[in-house]
Amino acid sequence: DSSLWRSAHKNRLNMAFKGEDHLDTLPLPVQRMHLIQVDSVQRWMEDLKLMTDCECMCILQSKPISVEKDEQNELILSSQYSTCDNLQLLLKRAWIISTELTRIAQKLEKNRWQRVHSMTVRVNCHVRSMINEYSMFTRNSSEEMHQFEKLLIDKCSEFTAFTERCIQTEDEQILKSMKSCINETLTTVAQYFGQLIELILTHEAQNLLRQIELSDRMCITESAISSLFSLTQEGAHLCRIIAKEGGVVTLFKICRQDCFRCLYPQTLRTLASICCVEEGMHQLEKVDGILCLADILTDNSHSEATHAEAAAVVAQITSPHLTFTQHLSSFLENMEEIVTALVKLCQEASSGEVFLLASAALANITFFDTMACEILLQLNAMKILLAACSDKHIVDTPYSRDQVVTILANMSVLDQCASEIIQGNGVQLLMEMLFERSSSGNSAEVAACERVQQKSAVTLARLSRDPEVADAAVKLSCIPRLIKLCRSPAERNNSDSVLVACLAALRRLAAMSPDGLEDSDFQQLVKPRLVDSFLLCTNMEESFV
Q: What is the reported pTM?
């Protein structure tokens, strides 16, 4: 069977061993060892590259010269794709060009003229392809855009001519004098390219928003909103363009028309993406977007999906990571209605995703304004959230538990919270959260688990000022768990923030129940200054300033 295998794959193995009879002259065990060592997939990929290069040359040589036939072929090709696909193709091509321009600058710095020239030729081809591809699917590009297209193509041609001259000379002085000209040309190409892309994306955003505003057909409006959402996923810069072109205003118009109710979830999802930038937030404030969101959340006739996406918008605009939420004065006016609706959504959530969005919005609001914690207390939110945590189909990920424990931590500053925690078996939940570990090893999930451990320790520390809570924590063996988290870096995933929170909680519990610690733990983790205990647990020799 070994000889049969070798016979079937002999040509490929010949390439791998670089010898016609090399394999056949080896003893069978050595042959097998070599076969294991050869990465056949890698070899086939290398073969494939050579074969496709040949195929590309054949295709290029057999392309028809007739312009009319070319246009017809390209029109058929482009008609297979939607506007969204075309925009994705454009953005991908733009990313390639941008990356190539950066690499050209790096090679130019090292005077690698041959590489600079070959990459310049490649950029020239990509630019022309991008412009041709875009002209295939756009119908009403502006005169300004055409001017920039011509400027960019001319400058790319000039750039290629410059670099070609450089590889034809070996005179260092000439090359040195030409280098500054090439640098200037490269900078100009990058500027023209950036301005053209900005114009194209602005033009496409305008077209999509015009379709949403003017179309009386549901399918066209839905498709335009879907394409707009895809654009928002390409980064903050595109969100700024859409916001500046009135995207937030247009989308809230949809959310205020009953005839588009079926499009509310999709529209709200797009709004949440746009509102990650300051321009989107300003637009939301100008069109009374908060009031519209409050109306949607409190209207029981809307679907759960619509309520969930409205909650996602609220979560976005109240994110504690944003620095431009202070101007949301209208949010405070509607906060009680919004918080009430979100608590109800948490209570009635039919899936983990819906609960996650609603609880994330509540968690952010507790950072946004302290009055929210008092409202939550009045609404029995603590009881609702603790009950939800016992349902593994609803609170099913570390991300959901992160939102719940964030709310508990922020509410724990209120004295009345202690009795709610005791009644809802909340200390048991906090103890379980100290054991939070990632099952997948995914970096985002690991970070969420760290936050859960940290915030549960913070909540315990705050609530343990109440003797009843401290007593319950001691009975549930919270002290041994906190000690293990302090002493074992692996248990806390080497997180310093978890360590600090656990030390604080341990000290609070030790003050209420000193008998729960061994002398060595007391001497190392409780008695010293917090910073000294921290250094001991992290095995750090340097001191903090």
A: 0.77
